[in-house]
Amino acid sequence: MKFTAEQIAGILEGEIVGNPATEVHKLAKIEEGTEGAITFLANPKYLPYIYSTQASITIVNRTFEPEANITTTLIKVDDAYKAFGMLLEYYNQVKLMKSGIEQPSVISEGATYGENLYLGSFCYIGKNVKIGDNVKIYPNSFVGDNVTIGDNTILFAGSRVYSETVIGQNCVIHSGAIIGSDGFGFAKDDEGVYSKVPQIGNVILEDNVEVGACTTIDRATLGSTLIKKGVKLDNQIQIAHNVVIGENTVIASQTGIAGSTKIGSGCIIGGQVGIVGHLTIGNNVRIQAQSGVTKSHADGDFVQGTPAMPYHDFSKSYVHFRNLPKIVAELEDLKKVTK
């Protein structure tokens, strides 16, 4: 896709200094800009690069005035950083602007879909699926029976959505994510043999949820595993059966949450956190990376460590831990003196 400086200035309500017909077809950092690229200057630290960049177009603040010759065409805006972000969003929307049903693909009996559906090749849509308007389902994706998908939701290539799942509006499911797989439920008999407990619940994703690549969300044993509005999940996260995650909580990669735990709204959970089952985590709780959470936490708690403890207590304890070899040596010396 190519855009001219004039087109971009129109999108950003900017002022052109240079050639309005200059064309770009890619994005770049200002220090790595080459011909055909558009970049931006917002941080004063990068000011020297404006005079050496080979980018064809550079977005700058309106207050910028060059102090030497430049070769790049300028687009002046009120806030260069914000404007470049708007441009990225616009570019992404254009890039994803697809519609139509590619072949081969399968749409089963009773399935319905709204306007502007994009269904990539080698997709399977199960029986009685309901798909809203402007939904995009990329190639090699699977949508099981009785699934509901809301307007403007995107399923990237290789997504797997099991039966009965409900996905809201404006959700994004990245490649390799699995929504609605069986919860890890087994019963052990007197002889030590495990038998599977049927998992007959479902998964509900409310509006504006994003699920990262290769993340797995298990269906409930009974009822629903519930991911509430605005939750953002990173790649490679495991969410077990009957978990509830509150609105606008964000969780980083490789975190595992065991069954029936309830997490509040506005929480921030770092990478590689482990949370045991049947806990209640309050609202606005922060859990530092690599923590092991073994008990419930109240609203606003800030914890770290395994088992997780208040962050400031952990920091103090860690100082002592780092000094442990020195402390042990001093104790050994003291034992020698007292003998």
TrEMBL record:
Superkingdom to which the source organism belongs: Bacteria
CDD domains: LbH_LpxD
InterPro entries reported in the protein's UniProt record: Hexapep, LpxD, Trimer_LpxA-like_sf, UDP_GlcNAc_AcTrfase_non-rep
All copies of domain UDP-3-O-[3-hydroxymyristoyl] glucosamine N-acyltransferase non-repeat region, residue ranges: 22-89
Keywords: Acyltransferase, Lipid A biosynthesis, Lipid biosynthesis, Lipid metabolism, Repeat, Transferase
Pfam families reported in the protein's UniProt record: Hexapep (PF00132), LpxD (PF04613)
Enzyme category, top tier: transferase
GO cellular component: membrane
Reaction catalysis annotation: a UDP-3-O-[(3R)-3-hydroxyacyl]-alpha-D-glucosamine + a (3R)-hydroxyacyl-[ACP] = a UDP-2-N,3-O-bis[(3R)-3-hydroxyacyl]-alpha-D-glucosamine + holo-[ACP] + H(+)
Gene3D superfamilies: Hexapeptide repeat proteins (2.160.10.10), MurE/MurF, N-terminal domain (3.40.1390.10)
This protein's pathway: Bacterial outer membrane biogenesis; LPS lipid A biosynthesis
GO BP: any one term: lipid A biosynthetic process
GO MF terms, alphabetically ordered: N-acyltransferase activity; UDP-3-O-[(3R)-3-hydroxyacyl]-glucosamine N-acyltransferase activity
EC numbers on record: 2.3.1.191
Annotated active site: H241
Described function: Catalyzes the N-acylation of UDP-3-O-acylglucosamine using 3-hydroxyacyl-ACP as the acyl donor. Is involved in the biosynthesis of lipid A, a phosphorylated glycolipid that anchors the lipopolysaccharide to the outer membrane of the cell.
PANTHER family cross-referenced by the UniProt entry: UDP-3-O-ACYLGLUCOSAMINE N-ACYLTRANSFERASE (PTHR43378), UDP-3-O-ACYLGLUCOSAMINE N-ACYLTRANSFERASE 1, MITOCHONDRIAL-RELATED (PTHR43378:SF2)
Similarity field: Belongs to the transferase hexapeptide repeat family. LpxD subfamily.
Assembly description: Homotrimer.
UniProt-recorded name of the protein: UDP-3-O-acylglucosamine N-acyltransferase
Organism ancestry: Bacteria, Pseudomonadati, Bacteroidota, Flavobacteriia, Flavobacteriales
